[in-house]
Amino acid sequence: MSTTIERCPWCGSDPLYCDYHDSEWGVPLHTTNGWYERIVLETMQAGLSWITVLRKRDHYRAVCHQFDPHIVASYGEDDITRLMADPGIIRNRAKISAMIHNAQMFLTLQAKTSAVDDYFWRYVDGRPLQAHRQHHAEIPAITPIATQMAQDLRQRGFKFIGPTMCYALMQATGLVNDHLVSCHRHAALR
Length: 190
Description:
two-stranded parallel ribbon
């Protein structure tokens, strides 16, 4: 009798990746700091592998004060210099600047919409989209909803935001259940 757990193939066998896949990816998100965290992490991931970002995530939690957008929004040039010297994060000046700028835009979005959570969940009418994909190759990188979200966020002033990043955000936060039907998490998140 096999005790192998069927997972989406993208997480491979790395324990950190498997834990992220099994306990977080695709789970509906509803916390303000959680939304800001995902925006930061997806921004940092641009051009890199997701496992690189996951390995630095705990350190990002420390330097971003548990992803408190109020604190990060107040960062200035001295903070950028400090972060650029920190090997525990991805030291890309444009991404660090975007992290700070996006914290400011996040707070503006929150003030205009009253709840950032409602803003994101409105794209799927408050319920996760249920994909029923058999193979990893069937999962799109971009969807019309992700394109619409990216356009709106860019119009609101966010940086390093595009349709691919927004679809990854949708997958990570449970706006869409993109676990393959063969994956043990697909049914659990239906």
